[in-house]
Structure formats: C-alpha cells, structure tokens
Write a structure and sequence with these properties.
The chain is of the alpha/beta class. Helix 2 runs parallel beside helix 11 and helix 20 (442-461) packs parallel to helix 22 (514-531). The structure holds alpha-D-glucopyranose.
C-alpha cells in the first residue's frame, strides 16, 4: 500500500465509527453516507502535495496556531487591494504589519446589490469576477504560504443566495431543490416559527420568511430575503455543502470561518439557534476535516452570550471548532470605554480565563459587523443599570452625544418596536480621532491616539489570538460614502468597511503624522508580543484587582515568565493599587525598572510590566 493511502486510511479509521454514528443519528441513510466517504477520499486524492505535506507537519504539531506570533488581519479584497492579484502584491505590507494570518472577507460569486457583503453566495466554486479567479486564489494562498501567512475564508453554510443554482431551480417549482430549503405553501408554519424565532435584521429585513409569488410559497430567510436558509435535514444538503467545504480547503485555505453557525438547524417551537443538531454537524465537519485536510482550522462565528459560545469548542475528546470569536469581551470593552468602569470587563475576562486553556479565542476591537450590546445585564442590574436605558446610553455615547465623548459612528438596525439598536464605527473614530482631526484639535488627537493604542495593548494581553481590521493600524476613519451607493445605503455596517487609503500608508514611518504615530506604536506592541513567551495562547492568564474602577490589570505567566498589564480606561491619571511583591519589574515600553505596587498611570496610559528579578 502506498504511504499516501496508508495515511488516509489511518485518519479515516480513527474517525469512522463516530462519524458514521452521528451521520446515521441525523440522517439514517447508508447510501448517502457511503457517497460522503467516497467523496472525502476523492478530495484527499485531489489535495496537492504541498498541502498534504503541511497537513502532516501540522498533525505532528497540532498546537501550531497557538504560538505568540499569531496575529490576524481581516479585509475585503476589493477595499484592500482591488483584486486577488492585488492582495498578492501587498503581502510585504501585511508582513510589515507583523500579520501572519489574513481573513479574506467573502469573495465567492454573488449578485451586486443582493450580496450582504458577499454573505449571499451564488456559487461556492467561483470567485467574484471583479476579484479574480479560483486560480488566482490558489496562487495567492501559495504565495502566502511561502511567507508563512495563513489564509482564512468564510464558509457561508446557513444559506445560499437566491441566485444559486439550487434556488433558481426551487423557484421554478422543482421539488428536489425546494426540499433543500424551507418552502411552505401557506403561512401556518411560518407563523408558528415567527412566534419563537427572534429577528436578526429587524429593520433592514424584518421577519424570517419571504413570500415568492411566482411559486406561491414562503421560503425561510433568517437574514435578508435574498438569503435562503438551507435545510440540513436533507442529507443531500449536508453532503453537497461538505464537498464545497473540501473543495475550498483544497484551494489552500488554512482557516475556514463557519459563518452564522448557530442558525443552521431549525426546529418549530424553538428559537432555532444553537440546537443540538448544530453541534452534531460541526463535530462531523471537524472529523471530515481531520480526515481529508487536517492542516485546516475551523473558526466558528458564534455571536451569542458566553454560555452559548463555549460549547462550540466541543469537548477535549470530541472537539468541534478550533477557534471562536471573543464577542462578549469585545462588546464589554466598549462598555468600559463609555463608563470608565472596568468591573464588568474584569468579570467577563474572569469567565473567559476560567475556561480550559485548550480553547482559543480570537480577540478583536471591532470587525466588519456592528457591535451588538450583548452585555451581562444580570450583573449590571445589581448596580441599578437597566438593559434598555444602558443600550440607549451606549448608543448616545458612541454617537458623540454625551459631554465626555469624542466618538463618532452610527446606529445599526434600530428596532422600532423594542427601541434596541446596535452600533457601527471604526476603532479610530470611536476613540475620537475623527472628531480631533476634523476640529484640528491636537490635544484631543493625542488623547484619542493614546486611547486607541491602549485598547490594542489591552486586546493583545487577552488570552487568545488578536485580529486587526485592516485600516485600524493606520487609524482609518468612518467612511460615509456608502450613503451614495444605493446598494449599500441602507446598511450602516459599510461605514466601517471603507477602502484602504494607501496614500496614508506612505506616512507610516513619519512620526509627525497620525498614521505614523499609531502604526509605530502598534508595531512596537506587536513586536513585544512576538518576542515574549507569555503571549502564547496557553499561558496562565488572570486579572488582578486594582481597587481603582478605571484601571484593569491582566497578568500572564508562562514557565517562569510573568507579565503584568495595566490599562487606564479614563481620561484622568490614576493609581493601580496592586501590590505584587514577588520581584522587580521592567516596563517593556519605556525600559524603566519599577515596582509593581501603587503604580501611577497617566490618562489612557498602560504598562507592560515584565518581572525581571524574582524575589527569593
Ligand atoms: C454573519 C456575517 C454577517 C452576515 C451574516 C449573514 O453574521 O458576519 O456579515 O450578514 O452572517 O450571512
């Protein structure tokens, strides 16, 4: 038997019993299971030599992605560099940003104007024409691998675009294709679903169903009306989507971001979120990946409260996703900016830090989506802070309506019924850079940059892998031009998805410019992170009480290394009343030797205090 075959069989046999068990539990269909197995083998055969080699290496070192040099950056290809080829030409800049993992936002075929930022996929095997071709993607992933850069892409598995081949045929009344979606010829069942299923886009796309007059049916559309939910009760849907997943993995993708994963199983009388069958499907996906392409990682997009997120890691014996977004921490960070009170954030970090160290979170200050105010309102309530009024406060604050706020941004999906709204804006605009630049206020600018840097320094200290949104490294501001594009005007998320200003990148080495000041200071932090072993994802990480409501303290330890991070979330100088008497410390930014007790921190300042001498 050839070695290649032996490797495959070993992987296949390792997972066969469990995979078959779960498949049968869901579908009870031998024929379809056999077909799945046959196709998995074909995709393995098709996988190129370089990828198979990297699979083998990663299998030997399954923790390869947990190192301290991992730093991500996400961007839309057209906004960043026009095309796939354009991105390839910008890899040097990506390296200069110390980034070794890029998330290419949705680039598969979609219909302009009905694309939801590319999250309505019309063909899973075709790249949007304006961005390039599948060959360009393969060239790009190969070029990235040459430079040790990992590539992440979205796998939008909850729905297809109404322009997908299946949807077109379903619309023509072909039963085989209608059964791949949720079709109903009257409103009885849709009405039952509406009773228990919440809305994702209450303003821009209210309701969970869309009426299709030409077929006389309702179709389930949890997101936009042109995004038709796939019916995973149909094994044909599961199998075909797994083939799409493997096809994309074979183009050289390292990280598959499973989009909107909690939504993929629907059940009457429930919220149709996070149902047990979702976990069965993700677990099967993990095993299929480990059999065919074990070098890839699954990143779950679970924008839910913490107790719903962690289960997507699965268990140590039966893992599901390799990585998940640290979404509650992100939202709580901005709550802390607005309140100058770190207590809720400390509590939230304590929850994350108490989880097994095998779990890897992706940390970020903002992404391409809005910031939903999913905070721990139970705890806030004990302080007399109610959910509705607090959300209103946060939305007012970040629009710059409060005296102490210099933030700029816009609301997203304001729900006229509940009064609820989410928020959109770039990191720099939310920190006050936009206002300061506009008003030519140098003091305000210095403070805004300081806050921006402090937030990144704090984000880097969190347990997990940090991800930047491209443009944030040079302080890109909100882009209001989306309002002039009829395809985007209704969706305020485009305010923080603006095109990269390459003319400003020229300033990155110039300390006289805002871009240069920010870029230089972030670079310094990135380099510290790369150098210091305490930043590996499985370091011990915990918070320390500072007895100062505006100052957060995070501590990390790995082997004998110890680092204390202090972060002042207020515009006033503060003192952190910590008392770490176990040694002498050095601030890694200024190089100053100091004691880690009673530390004075300037407005929006921070320290990275490394223990340099242990007390015996
Ligand atoms: C995810 C994406 C979001 C998109 C939605 C529907 O939440 O992040 O941008 O609108 O899925 O696919």
């Amino acid at each position: 038997m050839k070695n290649k075959e032996k490797i495959y069989l070993e992987r296949f046999n390792r997972h066969y019993d469990e995979l078959r068990w779960l498949y049968m539990e869901l579908y009870d269909n031998d024929g379809m299971f056999a077909e799945l197995c046959e196709n998995m083998r074909c995709f393995y055969e098709e996988r190129n030599r370089d990828l198979r080699k990297s699979d083998k290496e990663r299998e030997k070192n399954p923790d390869w992605y947990k190192s301290n040099d991992m730093l991500g950056m996400m961007f839309y290809i057209d906004n960043f560099a026009g095309t796939m080829k354009g991105v390839e030409a910008k890899l040097d800049y990506i390296e200069a940003c110390n980034v070794n993992y890029i998330h290419l936002m949705p680039f598969l075929d979609t219909v302009e104007g009905r694309s939801d930022g590319g999250y309505a996929v019309a063909d899973f095997r075709k790249v949007q024409k304006k961005l390039g071709t599948m060959e360009d993607l393969e060239d790009l992933t190969a070029a990235c691998h040459q430079k040790n850069i990992n590539v992440c892409m979205d796998f939008v598995m909850n729905h297809t675009s109404e322009d997908h081949e299946w949807a077109k045929r379903a619309r023509q009344g072909e039963g085989e294709y209608m059964s791949r979606y949720f079709f109903y010829d009257n409103e009885a069942i849709p009405a039952q679903y509406e009773r228990t299923v919440p809305q994702v886009f209450p303003t821009t796309a209210p309701g969970n169903f869309t009426w299709l007059p030409e077929v006389g049916h309702f179709v389930m559309t949890t997101f936009y009306p042109y995004q038709w939910d796939l019916n995973y009760r149909n094994p044909r849907v599961f199998n075909e989507m797994m083939y799409n997943f493997l096809y994309l993995a074979n183009r050289g993708i390292d990280i598959i971001r499973i989009d909107a994963v909690p939504y993929i199983w629907k059940e009457l009388g429930t919220q149709s979120r996070n149902l047990p069958q979702v976990h069965t499907i993700v677990r099967m996906m993990r095993m299929i990946g480990e059999i065919v392409c074990p070098g890839i990682l699954l990143l779950g997009e679970v924008v839910m409260e913490p107790e719903k997120v962690a289960p997507y890691f699965g268990t140590i014996e039966k893992p599901e996703c390799h990585m998940l977004y640290n979404v509650t921490t992100m939202a709580t960070t901005w709550h802390t900016v607005a309140t100058r009170d770190v207590r809720l954030l400390k509590r939230q970090l304590d929850i994350v830090n108490s989880l097994p160290k095998e779990y890897v979170f992706l940390n970020y200050l903002r992404c391409h989506d809005d910031i939903g105010w999913g905070l721990d309102y139970g705890t806030l309530m004990t302080e007399g802070i109610g959910e509705v009024s607090h959300k209103k406060y946060l939305n007012d604050y970040f629009r710059g309506y409060c005296g102490s706020s210099n933030s700029r941004g816009e609301l997203y999906n304001e729900d006229p019924v509940t009064g609820d709204a989410r928020f959109c804006g770039t990191t720099a605009s939310m920190c006050g850079v936009e206002r300061a630049v506009y008003e030519k206020n140098e003091a305000m600018l210095a403070s805004a940059i300081q806050m921006d840097v402090m937030l990144h320094a704090y984000m880097f200290m969190q347990s997990g892998i940090p991800v930047l949104y491209s443009g944030d490294e040079i302080g890109q501001l909100n882009d209001y031009s989306y309002k002039e594009d009829p395809n985007k005007a209704a969706d305020s998320r485009y305010i923080h998805r603006g095109a990269m200003h390459w003319e400003l990148v020229k300033n990155i080495a110039d300390q006289e410019t805002m871009e240069g000041r920010l870029f230089g200071r972030l670079k310094e932090l990135e380099e510290i992170r790369k150098k210091e072993n305490v930043f590996v994802t499985d370091a011990d990480t915990w918070t320390i009480e500072t007895w100062e409501p505006s100052v957060l303290c995070i501590c990390r330890c790995k082997d004998s290394d110890k680092l204390i991070g202090l972060f002042n979330f207020s515009e006033y100088n503060k003192t952190a009343w910590i008392n770490e008497t176990d040694g002498e410390y050095e601030d890694l930014i200024s190089g100053r030797r100091m004691r880690a007790s009673g530390v004075n921190i300037p407005a929006y300042g921070f320290y990275y205090l490394k223990r340099v001498k242990e007390m015996i």
